[in-house]
Amino acid sequence: MTALLLPDFDKPVKLLVVVAGDVPALVDAAIVTLELANIRFERIDMPSLTKVPAAISIAARLSNFDGYIAVGQAQGVEIAQSLQMLGLQGLCIGQGIVTAGANDAELAHKGEMAAAAALHLVATSRKWGRPDQGIGFTSEILLAQGGKATA
Q1: How many CA atoms lie within 13 Å of 84's alpha carbon, on the beta-carbon side?
Q2: CA gap 73, 79 in Å, rounded
Q3: Domains and CATH numbers, the chain
Q4: What is the pLDDT of residue 2?
Q5: Is 30 helix (H, G, I), strand (E, B) or coil?
Q6: Within 13 A of 22's CA, how many CA atoms are on the CB side?
Q7: How far is CA 90 from CA 5, 66, 69, 84, 131, in A?
Q8: What is 61-100 written as a DSSP string?
Q9: Which residue of 1, 14, 56, 119 lies most exposed, with the fewest beta carbons within 10 A?
Q10: Left, alpha or beta for 101 (phi > 0: left; psi -120 to 50: alpha)?
C-alpha cells in the first residue's frame, strides 16, 4: 500500500492535539509527523477519553485552530462516533483512537495516520472553502459625500 503524501499549504496551519491516556508511541508519532511537516500545534491532555470530543468542541468555538488530532485508548466505539459527528459538522479531525493490546509499531502508524488525516482534511476545507461573504459590507470603506458614495 502506497503512503499518501502530506499536503502543502500556502498559509500556516495550526492544529490542536488532544491526548487522553498513556499512549506515548501514538502521541509521539503524531507530533513527529506534524514537526516534520512544519505544522504549528498545541497539545492539551484530558483526564479521560470521554472528554476529548468536548475539548475539541470548545476549542472549535473559542479558538482559531484549523484542525484537530484526537489520540487515546478506548474501550468501545462511542468516542470514535462522537468525533465522527464533530467531523460531519465540518471540523477537520484526525483520529488516533486505539483499543488495548496494540503494539508500539501499530500505535506509531495510527499516530502518523491521525496527523495525516487532519492535514488532508484541512487542505480539503481550504480547497473547497468559500471566501468570506461578509455581512453586506464591501472591502472598501465608503464615505457619504454630498449624497454620493465615494471610495
Answers
A1: 6
A2: 10
A3: 14-150 (3.40.50.960)
A4: 42
A5: helix
A6: 0
A7: 23, 11, 14, 10, 16
A8: HHS--SEEEEEEEESSSHHHHHHHHHHHTT--EEEEEEET
A9: 1
A10: left
pLDDT in tens, 103-150: 999 999 999 999 999 999 999 999 988 665 555 555 555 555 555 555
Please state, in angstroms and rounded to a whole number, the distance separating the CA atoms of residues 52 and 14.
Answer: 18
Q: Of how many residues is the chain composed?
A: 151
CA 34 to each of CA 43, 48, 119: distance values in angstroms, whole numbers, following the listed order: 12, 23, 9
Q: Can you read off the three cell numbers belonging to residue 120?
A: 488532508
Q: In whole angstroms, what is the distance from residue 42 CA to residue 28 CA?
A: 13
> How far apart, in Å, are the Cα atoms of 141 and each of 91, 123, 144, 150?
33, 32, 10, 8
Dist. CA 48–CA 118, nearest whole Å: 21
All residues at 6 or more sequence positions from 130 whose CB lies less than 8 Å from its CB, including other chains: none
Can you give the pLDDT at residue 4? 76
Q: Over the chain, what is the mean pLDDT?
A: 87
